[in-house]
């Protein structure tokens, strides 16, 4: 909960990937309150009232996964909404002058997207969700220590990470009111 809150404030991309990882971890623990407590809450070494707060937060996520029919696979609608927000920002940056640097980064990735779609088998998702799925897959392969996929992991990280990092940075700046995407249109 505390990590998620911090990531949500600082980096929307890390927040989404963290929640996806947490969803899989909760599934691996079979949504058991006892397992969640012993594996995720107790090791934190927080005060008893914070332990209860953490356990309730994890169980709320479990309930959301069940309510949304995602107890076996899939991701929470919350993260899909955030990715759609990022896709909308991406679309704006592709046409507004404030997106010049972003467009340069994305232009390096764009030719690889069809290949990435083929590898991941995700033909129906938008470009930004595809990027998140690629990053998440790379993260899982890295955790598993999959040496066969080592170069693919590095390729994904080299191409996708800068785009998503820049998009997350701009998202945070827009959210905080630090930049106005439409500044030149007002003048």
Tally of contiguous helical segments: 10
**Tally of discrete structural domains:** 2
- Average pLDDT rating: 91
* Terminal residue distance: 42 Å
Q: Give unreliable regions as ranges.
A: none
Q: How is the biggest beta sheet arranged?
A: none
Mind telling me the C-alpha Rg?
A: 18 Å
For the secondary structure, the number of strands is 0
What shape does the CA trace take? globular
Task: Report the β-strand fraction as a percent range.
Answer: under 5%
Structural class: mainly alpha
Order of helices and strands: HHHHHHHHHH
Helix content: over 70%
Polypeptide structure, described:
- The chain is an all-alpha fold and 187 residues long.
- It has 2 domains: 2-67, no CATH class; 77-181, no CATH class.
- 74% of the residues lie in helices and 0% in strands.
- It contains 10 helices and no strands.
- The chain has helices spanning 2-10, 12-28, 33-41, 48-67, 77-93, 100-109, 113-120, 127-144, 150-175, 183-186.
- It starts with a helix and ends with a helix.
- 21% of the residues are buried.
- The model has no long low-confidence stretch (mean pLDDT 91).
Topology diagram in text:
Elements lengths: L1 H9 L1 H17 L4 H9 L6 H20 L9 H17 L6 H10 L3 H8 L6 H18 L5 H26 L7 H4 L1
Helix pairs in contact: 1-2, 3-4, 5-8, 6-9, 7-8, 8-9
């Amino acid at each position: 909960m505390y990590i998620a809150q911090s990531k949500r404030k600082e980096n929307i991309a890390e927040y989404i990937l963290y929640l996806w990882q947490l969803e899989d971890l909760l599934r691996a623990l079979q949504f058991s309150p006892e397992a969640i407590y012993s594996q995720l809450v107790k090791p934190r070494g927080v005060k008893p009232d914070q332990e209860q707060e953490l356990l309730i937060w994890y169980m709320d996520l479990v309930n959301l996964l069940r309510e949304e029919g995602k107890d076996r696979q899939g991701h929470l609608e919350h993260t899909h909404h955030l990715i759609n927000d990022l896709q909308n920002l991406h679309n704006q940056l592709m046409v507004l002058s404030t997106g010049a640097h972003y467009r340069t980064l994305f232009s390096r990735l764009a030719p690889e997207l069809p290949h990435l779609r083929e590898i991941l088998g995700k033909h129906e998702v938008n470009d930004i969700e595809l990027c998140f799925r690629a990053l998440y897959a790379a993260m899982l392969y890295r955790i598993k220590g999959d040496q066969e996929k080592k170069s693919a992991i590095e390729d994904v990280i080299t191409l996708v990470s800068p785009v998503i990092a820049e998009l997350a940075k701009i998202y945070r700046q827009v959210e905080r009111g630090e930049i106005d995407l439409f500044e030149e249109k007002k003048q």
